[in-house]
Each structure stands twice: as structure tokens, then as C-alpha cells.
Amino acid sequence: MVRTVYSPEYCLQYLEQYASQEIFVTGLILGQITEARENVIHLARTPEEKNSDSTSENSSVSDKAEAVRNLLGVSEAWVADHAKHVTRMLPGGMFVQGVFITSDEDIFEDPNYFSKVRSILNYTYKVLHANEYMYGNCPYTNERLVLHMSTNTKVLTCKTVEVGSNVKNTIIKPVDWKFLSKPQQWQRLDCYYEFDDVYPVIVKKSGISVKHQFQQILESAHKTIESSVMFIDGELRNGSEALEQLIKKKKPKNSSKSIQDMAKSMHVSLFVPFENSLPETVEYLECDGSIHFSGVVSSSVFMCPKATINEAIAAVKQDIVRSLASRFTMHCDALIDDNLLPEEKVCFNEPPRRVLVPVGTLYLCDYLFPGEAPAEALLSVRELLDLQITETDVVCDVETPADTSEFDALDRDASSEELLATPQEASQFMYITGICFAMLVLIVSIIIHYYDSILEVITKLLTRS
Amino acid sequence: MSPRLKISSYVIERLSNLDTNESTGCLYGLMYDGTLLVIGLSIELFENDKNTFKQLLLNLPAEIELCGVVKFGESLSMESSLKDIIQEVDITDNPLVILINKDKNMKAHFLVHDKFEETKYEVVNAEELWKQFLHVRLNTVLPLSCEATFSGVKNIMQNKRKKIASGQVSFHIDGTAVYLFGVASDVGLTGTNTEATIGELIDSKNPEQLSKKKKHNTNIVEIVNVNLVMKSTKDILSDKLVKTAVKMMTTQRKPAFCISMPLRVDTLAIIHRSTKLLDLYTVLVESACRSLRLLESVLLEQLGQEGIGDGAGLRLPETYHYLPQELGHFITRIVPRGIPDESMEKERRLLHEQLGLPLTKPIFRRGNAYSGNSGGRLLNPHEAIAPTPPKPDVTVALLRGRYAYYHYMQDNFNDDGWGCAYRSMQTIFSWFRYQGYTTVEVPTHREIQQCLVKIGDKPSSFLGSKQWIGSTEVMFCLETLLGVQSRIVFANTGAELQFYAPELVHHFQTHGTPIMIGGGVLAHTILGVEYNSVSNETRYLILDPHYTGAEDLTVVINKGWCGWKNSDFWNKAAHYNLCLPQTKPTI
């Protein structure tokens, strides 16, 4: 059977817009593949390649601009990097499914062009493979989409190309690409995955880096999440059932607002059994402190309603791990000091937090560093997704930045006993002052009360003398 | 109003056999349906700080609590020792006080408004007890890592208990779709209706076992396995939802030693079958917390010991459950891995004394631990035989404790026609393992042959052969592999055997080990003897190793592979040798 892909209609206009300008464009196809149906959610043009020293040398910029006029000038690494960054923005269950190209050459016929396409796909595959926790490569298929629109004829062709294998004869298959006039329905699944773990810091001879520690957290989180049991709306469901069947089941209960229910998100809860794979030994180590890893990863995934519960479960699990991996990578890339135990007694690492950005009828995400405004998200949406949104479109409250006062409190708490002693001393001082003040009030009131008699006594004394 | 009172027949039995110089004991029981059921007791050894009832409670299944005191003497009076214990009774407003005098006359009283009110009680026999109650066993592994200090361990254990009691954990009943939720969730359970009881769930789980159980009225202890899962997502609709994004805080300290280990929680609770599944949640939380307290005490004790004070020599705590026949309830012990039973005798002796158990046989060694796992072999098949009503002048003496039935063709090993004595020997060996005398694995045929070659009893050609062995060889092996001495009894003919009946009675009453008997071409295991002192009529309880069928209790009993045999079972013309393994008093 020919692989069929459903795409929103605006993608056609998007391609035509570039094709009609008769410019060469390459970009990524983002979508979701499930057993029942394959949907494309968005096409995102790969931004123009920027040369690092472009500002100093104008000539090289023009050279570069010249070079990317056709496919052969495209850098594989540049496209792969784009795919890497875009993957961070995708919720679980969504993947970079392939590339699109608008050009005047027939990329499937010309062997030079076609080998370039293959090379781009394979390079991207390799790059995305480097970090397994990013789930960059779609685990369900090794066939990537290649969509081509001829700038001359405006004819659209789509084929799949196999990646990741060393076979010389790459398998190429035709694809039936369909545009949908009506927007695709999505079932949203939400959860807040919570972390609250304390680990000892074990310093080996080589020292320890933040990156290394994050990697360890990621590994253990991945293992835990993989082993967890997932409930949807508080119930354990049959994994082979389709999501839409759950919606149907819900209907008769409150049939009046059934249409609203369709759009309502499902609440997911994850239950983790405690690890059984721990080594059966007592480890005895010298440690130099402790790590407290806490907070939430908000997760919103969007599934085609025909997808099975198992596919939805896999998507939620991918989403949490992918989000964690994205934050850690972004955080470590921005780090100046990678030492986990710097001079300070307490060290705080706050990776960027997740925000949601609307794309079509669903949401993708972006990450904001502490102190960054939502406007920053507009930038990455424009750069990486080739999309214009406004600041108000960004959903910023799915997660909140860490409260720094909380950190200060912890800092004080951990600093040592001397600090702890201070409030006690202070209160002691307050106590004594209080007593003194009370005494004073008493004396004054006695004086006032017996003012007459005291005066009398004094006058008597005075008259005697 | 004071509750109705029921007392387990085990407690009555123990009280009437108890011989102690102490003045007071503690009573343990559980409340169900307005009834107080007394399940256990201990003798309060006041001079020993560590073995107070508080510590002992941690060794008992959850739901069993301190419920009163037993006073050994003639009259009731509120002594301070009595008062101290009574103050700790939480389970009921009316603590129970049992008075038992020298003649073993027993009177039960409830303490109502500081006055003793004598009360009637009902005795619950063993069969009834196991029919009405079942055990829930919670298994989970909690990762533990903390500073290797007293405060480090105490803090982390307290945190773990807090976490478990926070309502965030859920429990999953093995083999079902039933999950129990805590207060952090909107619903109490899923997978069944909210009114369901634990008994109903178990019966629906395996209806065929129900009919089987009725057929052979053995006292099967029902254990429901449960595991723990932690809710790791927050409730989206909760007002208290804190959405702070993930962050990492590192606190530096002076370098210190840390321990990291998997903390295996394996804990029991006893509940009535009519307990609602909804109510099981709090029971399981309490059960987990009790286990954590016991684990904590074991870890702290290890940390306090010389040489491992810094944690370097800390060993993994391992949990064992025991169901001594004398007690009729479980005792859970946690011991450090790898420490031999022999070097923990002192602790066990104290426990024996506290529970009023005999000091002559092991009860709390690793081998004594309760296990449903017997490698597929039948355990104590003779218990399925309907007991004969007692007759005057007739003495019945059986082996004590547990053994596994070894017979032909087991373990995919064809020993049909030559391996009967080997199998009998294996049955005896399994008895020594189950009674805690040894942790050595039951030897295979080859290992038995190796042993005999090694001690020079047999030439090396014996190894791998299909040659028979007899009672003396069994004796040699037991001595070499276990250090167990045996007595050999020789009978010239099968008819002469019955002269030894009183001796066999004595053997079962004192040592209680299975006897191997070899005569002619056959070997059997004797599990018990019935002797009529007037008519000299003797019957033998035989376990036949020549059985080649499957592990089916019904077949084994109905076809007489395990059963009572008259004297004519023995060949009148053949010589017989009996190997009577002897036990030494030990704990």
C-alpha cells in the first residue's frame, strides 16, 4: 500500500508562495506517524545559512548567498542543526519526518541532486541519533519524506527515502500526499510530571560537571518513566484501543456537551514502580554534598484521535524525556562555569522553562531562560518554524520560573549554624527589650496613679526642710 | 462499650504451656468488626531494653497491635509495670488484662474506667483463623542514599515514611487490574467496584484453587501480593498545583561518607477477608512504614557496631518471614546479608525467650523462613491425610516441621529402579534445610555419590553409576555434608520391626526427623508411627520415593504414595536397616 500523508491546506500555499517566487528553498516536514494515519503538521523553511564572520567580510556573504541558490550548495550540517533545534520544539509523538524542496531541477531524476538529498537526510539522521533522549529520529520508520515542488511546473512530488542503512541501493517509494481542506482534529493529553529527588554528590578524581550530572538525572528519569504505568483520566486503559473510543465512551454520560468534550484534553497520570534493577549491593562512597533536583515538566501532547492508547502513552513518555533533554542541553550550552561545585556553598542551576507556541490547531513549545521575556519565543518561532506569531499567542504559564526567594531561603538554611543562631539571639533581645518596656510602662502608670500622693509627700518633705 | 473478645487457640495453647519466672507479658491483637482478636503474646523481659514490645511490634504483621497484658499470678493489681504497658495500648480504649495462675486457670478482663471487668471470650481455632484472615504482602524496592551516619539514616528513613504516608503512593494488587490510590487522587481505587472486599477479589482471581482447598483441608496461608507505585504526576485540577520548572540545587558540604543501596521492602499485614479494598490503602501504608522502621533499626544497629561505624562494612538488610507452628502468626526478621546464622545466635535466643519458644531447635534461622516456593515439589503431603480420631492406648508420633517430597523422575532425572534411597536421603536433607539447621543445598544423586567416594566408602567407579545405596550410606552422607549424626537400627526381619515401635515413637517425639528405611531392594521414608501399647499393633506413616508421577497431591494421597501402612507392609523375610538422624539442641 502506498504511504499516505495528510497535510493541512496551508502547507500547499506555503510551498506555492516560495515556488512562485522561483527561489530555491529547503525545509523540514514536521508530523506524526501512527498505525492508523500519518499527519503533517507544519513545513518549516531552513533559515538562510549565516556565516559566523559575515559581519566583517561582506564578500563572503555574497559568496554564500550565491552558493545556496541551489540544492548542491546546502550544507548538510546546517539542515541537521535546524532539525536538532526544531526537535526541541516538538511535543512527544511528533518528529521531523523529512525535507521539502522547491527548485527548478527535478531532484529525483538528476543523480547529483538526489545523492545530495540522500546525504542531507542521512547526515540529519546521524546528528539526531547522537542524543537518544531527544527522540530526534522517529522510532517507527526509517523512511523519510522528500517533498518536491518544481518552481517551473508547480508540480508536487513526494517520495520516501530510507535512511540509516548502509545499503547502496536506497529504497525509494512513492507517497500519496493529500491536502485536507478541514483542519485536522487533535486529541490533547496533559500532565505535570514531578521531580523531587536528592542525590549525593560524588566527586571522582576527574571532578564533576553540571553536564555530567544532568546526564545522570536524564538517564535515571528515562528508565523510571519507561517503566511507569499510565492512567488516562484516572483509569487504566486497554492499550490497543483507539483514543477516539474513549471519547465515544465518555459521551453518553453527559451527552449535552459532547462536542465540547471532544476538544477537552485528557488528563494523564503516571505511576512509577520503584526500580527493581538496582544493583544488589551497598555502595560506599565519599561525597561532597547533595543535589536536590525538583520541579515539574509540563507535558502536552497532541495525538490523532485514531491513534491507539499505546501510541499516546509512548508519546507522553517521549515528551517528558525529550523536554528534559532539551532543557539540559540548552542550559549546558549556555553555561560559563560547568563545575557542579563552584566556590559557593550552594549552587543553583535553573534550566530554561517550557512555554507553548501555537502552530495551526495545536501547540509546539519553546524554552525561555530565567529572565527572558515571551518575546524571545517569537524569535525562535520565526527563525526555526518560519512562522509569525504575536507575544500574546505564547502560553507562558504552563510552567513558572523558580522562585528566587525560595533559593535564598535554602541558601541561608544550608549556610551553617551561625546563621541559624542569629534569629534566636534576636528574639532574645526582643524579649529583654519587651520586659524593660513593660517595666517602664508600669512605673509610669504607678507614678500617674499615685501622682497626687507622691506630690503630697514631696511637698511635705520640701516644706519640712 | 468494650469490644467482644476472641482469642486464638495458639495463644491459649502457649499460655497453658508457658513456664516463666517473669510476672508480665504483652498481648497482641487486631480489631475487626467490633471484635478484639488476640493473636500473639510475648513475655516482657524488663531488664532488656532492646527487646521491648515496641521493638517486637515491628516484627509482627501490620494491623496487629499491642492490646493488653497478661499477668502471671493469683490476683490482679495495678502495678507500675502493668500500668506502663497498658498506657501504650492504642487499639482499644479498654485494654485487655488476662490473669493466669499457677494451675493455668485463665481469666480475661477488660479495663473499663480503671476497673477490671471480667469478660467472656471465644476461642478461635487454627482452621478458622486461616479461613477468616489472609495476609497481604507488599514488595517494593526503594533506592536509599544518605550519609553514613545515625542522623543521615534516621532522616532519610523518616522522609521515606513521610513520602509513603503523603497519599502520593498507590498500590497495585498483583495479577489484577486493581490499583489503590491515596488522598492525592480523586478516586480510592480502580479496576473493581468500590464495595468489593479483599476476599471476593481473591476468590474471583482463582476459582479453581478454591475448590481444591476445600477438598484437602490443609491450613493454607493465603498471601496476596501487592506492589507499590508512586504517582509521579501532579493533579492538573488541584488548586495547590505548583508549576515551578525543574531546577537543580547543589549544596556543598565537608566531604563525608555516603551509603547507597536498594532498600528492599517486604512486609506483611494481616486482614480479615471481609475488609474492603478501599480500606486496604491505610493498612498498606502502615505496613510499609512498619517495615521501614524495622529496616532503620537494623541499619542503625549495624552502624553502631565497631568496625563498620563509618558504614564501609554495612551489609544489605534482607527480610525473612517466619511462621513458627507454635505461634500461629508471622514474625518478620531483617538480618544483614552474608552474616552466618551461627553468629547471630544471641539475637535469636532473646527472641525465643521473649516469645516463650523452646530453646532446643532453630526457629528463626534463614532456612526456617516461610516460603511458598519448593521448586515445584510437594511440601508435607502427609498433612492432607484425614487425621484418625484419637483412641485409648494408642500413641501417634509424627515428624515435626516441613520437608519436601523427593521421588523418582524428578528434575528430569531418570532414576527409576535405583534412586529410591537417594530420594529418601534428599527428603531428609530438605527437612534439615527447612528446619534451619543448614543452608547447604539438597545434594543431587551425583553429589551424594561424590561424597561417598570422597570419604572412601565407595570406589571412584561408583561415580555416575546406578548403584543403590543403603541406610549406612545415608548416615555417612548426612554426617559428611551436614555434620548430622544418625543412629542405625537393624531388624532381622520385617516382622521384628514392630519391636522397635516404642523407640520410633521416642525418636519422633525428641528428634522429629524423617527416618530412612532400607530393606530388600526397597527404600522408604518413615514420617510417623502409630503404636498401640496394649495390642502392640503398629502402623507406619510412609512416604514412598518410588512414585514416578506428577506433583499432584490428590494422586499421591489417593493412591497411597503417602499414607499409613500396617506391619504387613514390610517384607517378612527381608532384613531392614533404619537410619534415624539425630538433632542437637541448638537455636
Write a compact overview of the structure shown.
The complex is a heterodimer of chains A (465) and B (587). By secondary structure, chain A is of the alpha+beta class.
Give a written overview of the molecule:
The complex is a heterodimer of chains A (465) and B (587). Chain A has 465 residues and is an alpha+beta fold. Chain A folds into three domains: 178 residues, 3-Layer(aba) Sandwich (Cytidine Deaminase, domain 2); 213 residues, no CATH class; 41 residues. Chain A is 39% helix and 26% strand. Chain A has a seven-stranded mixed sheet with strand order 1-7-6-5-4-2-3, sandwiched between helices. A four-stranded mixed sheet of chain A has the order 9-10-8-11. The longest helix of chain A has 33 residues. Chain B has 14 helices and 24 strands. An eight-stranded mixed sheet of chain B has the order 7-6-5-4-2-3-1-8. In chain B, strands 18, 19, 20, 21, 22, 23 and 24 form a seven-stranded antiparallel sheet that branches. In chain B, helix 5 packs antiparallel against helix 8. Chain B is globular and about 90 Å long. Strand 8 of chain A pairs antiparallel with strand 14 of chain B, so a sheet runs across the interface. Chain A: Keywords: Membrane, Transmembrane, Transmembrane helix. Chain A: Pfam families: ODR4-like. Chain A: Belongs to the ODR-4 family.
